[in-house]
Write a structure and sequence with these properties.
GO terms for molecular function: GTP binding; GTPase activity. Pfam families: Arf. This is ADP-ribosylation factor-like protein 6. Its main location: cytoplasm. Belongs to the small GTPase superfamily. Arf family. It is a single chain. With about 190 residues, the chain is an alpha/beta fold. It has a single domain, classed as Rossmann fold (3-Layer(aba) Sandwich). A 6-stranded mixed beta sheet has the order 2-3-1-4-5-6, sandwiched between helices. The radius of gyration is 16 Å and the shape is globular.
Length: about 190
Amino acid sequence: MGFFSSLSSLFGLGKKDVNIVVVGLDNSGKTTILNQLKTPETRSQQIVPTVGHVVTNFSTQNLSFHAFDMAGQMKYRSTWESYFHSSQGVIFVLDSSDRLRMELLKDELMMVMEHKDVVSRGIPIVILANKMDIPGAMTASDITVALGLNLYRSGTWSIHSTCALTGDGLDKAMQQLSAEITKYMESRRT
């Protein structure tokens, strides 16, 4: 098996390693989402708030992800940008039931979407409108309008409704992110 894995890697047929940054305000569900993306036997039983950052590894069909789960508390948000230069993708997680912090959320999301490393390198961004299971949560369409994303034409981004606790919506979002990262990596080779 090791021989075939080595041979696959040599010819570019194996899974590609990619770095992604996972950001969003505190208590949006970033760590819970990453926990859902791991294999069942490697999932944590207890989720605690992230301090600084934690690296989580998981795979999709064609990519091996090294996800930098960044703390969302205000004192840590300034550290997010130092990870963009070495990333091939960004996941921005938001709590779709947190209507009180929509303006703050918009500011932080725009900081990410307009960051020089994200823009100049064309890094794809997947926005996860999490906690859709909570009564009164905003829909992805409502969030798109509330954050002004319907007017945002530059960059590669998409928004997906998710529920971190059940995993609903995560497969589709990760398929989208994987496809966008694959396109991004291919465009960087030419």
